[in-house]
Automatic annotation (TrEMBL):
UniProt xrefs under SUPFAM superfamilies: EreA/ChaN-like
InterPro entries: Emycin_Estase, Hydrolase/PRTase-associated, UCP036794_erythomycin
Source species, domain of life: Bacteria
PANTHER family attached to this UniProt entry: ESTERASE, PUTATIVE (AFU_ORTHOLOGUE AFUA_1G05850)-RELATED
Protein name from the UniProt record: Erythromycin esterase family protein
Length: 419
């Protein structure tokens, strides 16, 4: 049984007040000793989470030489932003214009004022750097099968590749499922009608002809990552209709694989930052996900690179407003985030004082924060009236993260008006 007084006393003793970025210097110094810093969020639609991650990332880039950011977004859309901030030839003149590349739901997750401000900063920072030192911005998610397939065909056509016809054949196979890729999963899983042969033939040929695509390093990376998305997304959509837990695992393994390829592009000594939801960056072994055989980015990166090379920071809130939708694909709206449930981590953090704070977990205090307690998680769909049914993940906070940033009252992010 959790004793409220004991836990609130521990939070009061070990938490530090957060008034501005300078208060986070102890966390930033600790995090910068790792090769990879993972920055979470308990919702996809909270302004403060985006702004805090931006400020942390700026500091790591300016002060500690971190070289790239990988986010829970589509590779193809983020690549347009990457080209913009690196000064490549693009049709965009402003940061907000580059975010128009996010045109697939939930576009507001990245096409918002907070990201536009950060992208503008990245462009300005890169303007002072030579080509090899420019900071990269990359998407490592799995959903954009159609967009990545289209990018592959366009690129191969532009260089008159011998693989164009194989790419078009694979693309045409997926074409009937353009707007409903989950129906591809139904067709593949239950009717044996899939595009696997066409896809394997294309990927095999791209590998055999890989020397044709190595003249432009960033273009070669773009082709490699789009190919990876198509390959893993085919498997993801095939599995999702029969096994939700395994499709989750396919997605998070893909994100780790994509992150590895991006990191390798920047060199063996590159240091990078990941922006994703807490459910991805917080170690799954410290939650009930492990009981269901699920893994995530936080767990997999710790296992792959070593715990000392990965520093995970969770972010959470007690109450406020958020951008989300009632159902998948519905228009977004500003919603109320009610006070956190009694007995949750956010509840105890509030009980210890209704102000912003952060905790660095260490050997001295880990025992106070390794109790299994509900931890708020809000996705792109949300209904606060049913929050108790699925918006709290039982978690051992000090095992799930290296540090936790708590914002007592938060506000909805600001979607761009043209999205």
């Amino acid at each position: 049984m959790i004793h409220t007084l004991d836990l609130t006393k521990a939070i009061d003793h070990y938490a530090k007040r957060l008034n501005d970025l300078s208060d986070l210097i102890p966390l930033l110094e600790k995090a910068s000793g790792a090769k990879y810093v993972l920055l979470g969020e308990s919702t996809h639609g909270t302004s403060e989470f985006y702004s805090i991650r931006s400020e942390i990332s700026k500091w790591l880039i300016k002060e500690k030489g971190f070289q790239f950011i990988a986010v829970e977004g589509d590779w193809s859309s983020c690549y347009e932003v990457n080209r913009f901030i690196k000064g490549y030839d693009t049709p965009y003149t402003h940061a907000s214009e580059s975010l128009s590349a996010f045109n697939r739901w939930p576009e507001w997750m990245w096409a918002n004022e907070e990201i536009a401000s950060f992208v503008s900063w990245l462009q300005g920072f890169n303007n002072e750097k030579d080509t090899s030192s420019k900071i990269g911005f990359h998407g490592i998610d799995i959903y954009s099968l159609w967009e990545s397939m289209s990018e592959i065909v366009s690129y191969l056509e532009s260089i008159q590749s011998p693989d164009v016809e194989k790419a078009k054949k694979a693309f045409n196979c997926f074409e009937p499922y353009h707007n409903e890729l989950q129906m591809y999963g139904v067709s593949a899983s239950f009717y044996g009608k899939d595009c696997l042969d066409e896809l394997v033939d294309l990927l095999k040929s791209l590998h055999q002809n890989r020397t044709l695509y190595e003249q432009d390093a960033e273009a070669a990376l773009n082709l490699e990552l789009n190919s990876l998305v198509v390959d893993n997304a085919e498997n993801y959509y095939r599995v999702m209709v029969t096994d939700g837990n395994e499709s989750w695992n396919i997605r998070d393994r893909h994100m780790v694989e994509a992150f590895y390829k991006v990191s390798s592009f920047y060199g063996k000594d590159a240091k990078g930052i990941i922006w994703e939801h807490n459910t991805h960056i917080g170690d799954a072994r410290a939650t009930d996900m492990a009981e269901d055989g699920m893994v995530n980015v936080g767990q997999l990166t710790r296992e792959k690179y070593g715990e000392e090379q990965v520093y995970a920071v969770g972010l959470g809130t007690y109450k406020g407003t958020v951008i989300a939708a009632d159902r998948w694909g519905d228009p977004h709206e500003e919603m109320v985030v009610p006070k956190a449930q009694s007995g949750s981590w956010e509840y105890y953090l509030h009980q210890a004082g209704s102000y912003d704070k952060f905790i660095l977990f260490n050997q001295e205090n880990i025992k106070f924060f390794n109790k299994t307690i509900g931890h708020r998680a809000i996705g792109v769909t949300y209904n606060h009236r049913y929050e108790h049914l699925g918006n709290y993940v039982p978690s051992r906070l000090s095992e799930r993260y290296n540090a936790f940033i708590y914002i007592d009252q938060t506000n909805a992010l600001r979607p761009l008006k043209n999205n």
